[in-house]
Amino acid sequence: MNAALRELGSMVMLGIRGTKPGDPALEEDLAACAHAGVRMVILFDRDVFTGGERNVESPTQLRRLSAYVRERLGEDATIAIDQEGGRVQRLSSVNGFRAWPSAHDFASMPDSEQLSQARDMAETLRDVGVTLNFAPCVDVNVNPMSPVIGALDRSFSSDPEAVVRCAQHVLRAHADAGIGCVLKHFPGHGSATADSHHDLVDITETWNRDLELSPYRALMNHRVGVMTGHLMLTTLDQNRPASLSRAITTGLLRESLGFQGPVFTDALDMEGVRARWSLEESLLLGVHAGADVLVHACNSARREYAADVVRAMEGVAPEVPAIAERSALSRERMKTLRHT
Question: Which is catalytic among the residues 29, 82, 266, 292?
Fold first, then answer.
């Protein structure tokens, strides 16, 4: 049982609470991670439930936190963050960093300035111990009023070629700094009329296959990961969103497009999945879909934290066929994100 749990744990990324060694919540979360073999964590600036600080107070503090996470979970532990710029940046002027432009504003800059901005961001991440960035967002701005993409200026452009050019600058800068990147949100959130944080989003009637898959086709030969969204596309799967769908994760992304890197689910505590599937079901379906990393932010109104996820994993692990082989493949794919 413990062996199966730790194999599954190697495929899980969890959010942790706290800013410094000795914080009771941090110690509890890291103990749960260590018990289950979880060696990937994701950091946030704000706690969704309390509205207070989560993991980030200052550059010096974050550097020490990253070092402590590695002391507890291993020197090769993955520390991830969402650092797009604009409305989605966990490191900002609020907590002692600088502010980086939104994707919309980034796209209006000349190439030299784009590279400068991207390099500054990537080097800052490296300096504080982050090794994986859930960026760039390559959703094409099909619907400028999309509540979680276009309306928040998270898309580079409505032109997929412009999206690719901007993303290439971000990827180049991060690779030079030794930071892995994850493209999101597959198969495309830019046309959506709703927000998958709050409900399961159906893009069947709005999705533009050629436009929205174009960035993935162009960028997948870079050493990147891909995040699957909680997005229903009923022409491919009538029952499950991309994040939990084998038809989309394995069929479309891997077999049709030929993607060979690691696949990450969007956060499994978002209502886009949890309104319909339990935590245990979400974990199991994510593995069966073909995801390499099951992300649970542990940062929602559900108040599920690392120990809660580990308990669910204990029930799921024995049900995963060939878990040792599956987790070994996941770890091999994760190695492709290392640029140093």
Answer: 266
User: Which of 193-202, 264-273, 282-291 is predicted least confidently?
Assistant: 193-202
Token pair of 167 as six digits = 């993303």
Does the domain made of 2-335 have the CATH classification 3.10.180.10? no
Looking at this protein, which amino acid is placed at residue 197?
Answer: H
Rounded to whole angstroms, the Cα distance separating 245 from 38 reads 24
Q: Are the C-beta atoms of residues 167 and 184 closer than 8 Å to each other?
A: no
Per-residue model confidence as pLDDT tens digits over 219-259: 998 899 999 999 999 999 999 999 999 999 999 999 999 99
Q: What is the mean pLDDT of residues 25-35?
A: 98
Check if 269 is active-site: no
List residues bridging with 263 in a β-sheet.
Answer: 226
pTM of the full structure: 0.97
CA distances (Å), origin 340, targets 43, 70, 146, 177, 208: 22, 17, 37, 8, 37
Tokens of residue 234, six digits: 């009923």
Question: 197 an active-site residue?
Answer: yes
SS3 label, residue 199: coil
Residue 300, Cα to own-chain centre: how many angstroms? 15
Annotated active-site residue in 23, 176, 197, 222: 197
Helix ranges, the chain (H): 2-9, 24-36, 59-73, 103-107, 111-127, 160-177, 209-219, 246, 271-274, 279-289, 306-316, 323-335
Instruction: Please tell me whether residue 210 adopts helix, strand or coil conformation.
Output: helix
Q: Is there a contact between 153 and 88 (Cβ–Cβ < 8 Å)?
A: no
Positive or negative torsion for Cα 171, 174, 175, 179: negative
The residue ranges of every structural domain in the chain are: 2-335
Which of 157, 131, 133 shows the shortest CA–CA distance to 144?
A: 157
Task: Tell me how far apart the alpha carbons of residues 226 and 90 are, in angstroms, rounded to a whole number.
Answer: 20
Dist. CA 263–CA 105, nearest whole Å:
28
Spatial contact of 132 and 82, defined as CB atoms under 8 Å apart:
no
Question: From the CB of residue 208, how many other CB atoms can be counted at a distance below 10 Å?
Answer: 16
- For residues 321-338, average pLDDT: 95
Rounded CA gap, 5 and 313, in Å? 7
